[in-house]
Here is the input.
Amino acid sequence: MPSALETLIKILKLERDTGYKNNAVIGGLEAYSRNWVQQAREQARRPEHHILVDELADLMQSYGDIQNRNERHDRITYMMDRIMGRVEPAPEYAKKLNEYQDPKPRQLKNTVPKPAKSKPSSSNDNLEQTNNEFYGTDDEFIGGEDYRPSGTDLPPEPRLVHPPRRPRPSLDENEARDIMRGLNAHISKMKGVGPRMVKALGRLGVERINDLLFLLPRRYDDYSKLSYISQLQPDQLVTVIGTVRYVQIREAKQGRRKDFYMELDDGSGVISVTFFGQHYLSRVIRVGKQLVINGKTSIFRNRLQINNPEWEELDTRNLQAVGIVPVYPLTEGLTARRMRTLMQEVVNYWADKLPDYMPEATLARAELGDLGWAIKNLHFPEGSDHLYHARRRYVFDQLLLLQLSIMANRREWQSVPAHPLQISDDFMETFLSSVFPYELTGAQKRAIADIRQDITQSIPMNRLLQGDVGSGKTAVAITAMAMAFSQGKQSALMVPTGILAEQHYRNITRTLENFPSETKPTIALLTGSLSSAERDAVYQGIRDGSIDMIIGTHALIQEGVEFHDLALAIIDEQHRFGVEQRGKLRNKGMNPHLLVMTATPIPRTLALTLYADLDLSIIDEMPPGRIPIQTRIVLPIERERIYSFIESQIEQGRQAFVVYPLVEASDKIEAESAVEAYEQLCKVFFRHRVGLLHGKMKPSEKDDIMASFANHEFDILVTTSVAEVGVDVPNATVIVIEGANRFGLASLHQFRGRVGRGGFPSYCLLIPDKDTPEAMERLQAMESTNDGFKLAEIDWKMRGAGDLIGTRQSGRNTLQITEMMQPDLVALAQQEAKTIYVESPDLTRYPLLKERVDMLYNENTDVS
Here is the structure.
């Protein structure tokens, strides 16, 4: 049976959700309080609990006398907060409470108080604690009383447990829409924003007022918690305010680079600051200037220093405020002070004016704050707890709006029928036993069954096939293309690069040589490297239907490509293609069934949010006989041993990758670059052939180098993250990743998948250039497992969803604060999006929500 407090909480929430009309219970709260008081007093165990009951009863009995809706809101909120223990009692009840205060401290038997956790607790936790305090437990206490002390010896810092929600202003639908559409206005309509400011903001991607309102700070400086130089320790990320006492331009690397050096004094000590390659700062940073710098401390020659910090001139108004100060992205012609002033103006104008598009019931279930309150605290937070809740509301909105837009795309795509393809059991059994010289894994068979079931329907298939590197996705794709061919239909496979297209073309052609019928499929390759005559011949074959299967790059979606009867479109490494490119490929047929594939493992919950338009199949087991790749963390001082190991592998006829985080040396990032390392490794391995591959090369140049490496024209390939997705090089057995701590687990796992494809023992060697606990924990996860899905879950929990989201951005909207996209919030947004979609697939029940989705994801929305 629910306790009196639990029942009352439910009634108060219902009263809030129904608009404070005093009809949550028959007769109103006044009538309900009479019976409730009797039950609550019977359950109360201590005198102060009787005081709580009396206060709540008095508040309920006078609730009907309140006519103002805002005052009713405040009364309900106060009562809920009193039950949860978030606020102190009113003065007259506090006085009564003091009369019962026991001067003797009481302690639990054999119990050590635990410190309070910093993460805001849920309402369920607070209610459970209140119930335990109110009704007692079976624990025995010193003195023989049933008493449970709350908290620790010292009271925890006050914090905002739940963000506020105010009654919404009464606006008719058209008026609210007009206000929202005002966000589409061009920033030139704002007072004080002239042509020069428009140009500067444009460099930050700001075109509309909406862009400016949601241009979030890069970081926040808490001026109430600034660091004193005398108290700094190495490897700390700090914000320091001080006065420049000394400046100097210093030459480095035999005069190839000029650095700006200064010394900053805050009265407690002096710290050295160096800006590599930024000698021009001498024109703006002079002795005597007061600066705010943010960066990471380190030790050089027994002296504390900060290299390449972010900096700005001190704005004394921030010191007077003594609070959290936003730090925005800047560009030429836009100072930090001017940017903060501009943001203050736009936030002050829009935060209270903008109607909240999110349904009230959704916010209540998710326990999220109002939109206006969240906007204020995203930019100018009242405290760290306020900022936490504001960021949580904003991330929730991003996820839910993205999912609603994706589901709308799915609904639109599936409104046009596809060719249903009826595939017999006899064909499937004969094909699988004839074509593949090995038994498919259970996961592959399940994925094929999913696809077969989908394509029998007139509703077009929209399926995402996720599989780790080497799990056998290509075999599933070949089977799907064979199904289409068996029904006299065409299929197309689109991949990101020409060399990958050629690899697929060779593999598919070789596999289908054993196709179990007299009529074999005609397979063609279409890439940008074909001659005009070759390309025209392929175009003609696609058009007249003489080509059954076509493998290609973006060339497949160019003008001039017209399919005779395209029934199945497959996209490999789908995160490399945008929604628009996928749509173009679909438009090449009547409305073909669509299969998209990725080798980037994404946790299921996140995948179902980011790809809500696609059904999900997962290949979560590897083919038998695959040798696990041995992964080891190796310290930089052991680099010579690594070189010796690479040498021994080359002497056995094997090949190696060496990956670097940068293409070229950077003035701002202290990390090794591929170009510099290439020059060095050519000297180290002077007896061997060393190649260089990086993202700044032309696509054709990259393909040529990768093909040369695959043909063993190089022994060692020095490269960057461009190697994350590439062709098979079965002879490569070693991959060395320099600066491994700078990559996410998803990227590291993709790099590792470049080796171990030829049946030889293979090795992944991770060399960190920083050994911070967080970085080492990630790298140790790489050592512990070869399971990409496990690593994706770990990466998500450690670093948020940023690395996993990758290029999944759409329309004008770019996902922000991805580090807060944690599993619980993603699941919550996913559930609420589904609830809204079930209630109103076209969002006609939620016109403001529909307006917001269109504003962010409809490219046809005009900027006025």
